[in-house]
Amino acid sequence: MEQTVVLKHLLGLLRTTTGSVRVFGLDPVLDPVGVLSRVGYTQAFHPTWDAAYARELLESFGLDPSKKVEELSKGMRAQAGLIAAVAHRPELLILDEPSSGLDAVVRLDILDAIVRTVADDGRTVIFSSHLLDEVERMSDHVTLMHHGRVTLSGVLDDVRHASQRSRVRFAEHSDQPPALETALAMEGGGRTWSVVHSGSLELFHHSVLALGGEVVESRDATLEEIFVARAGRNRQPLEAA
Question: All domains of the chain, ordered by start, with CATH?
Answer without folding.
Answer: 2-139 (3.40.50.300), 159-231 (3.30.70)
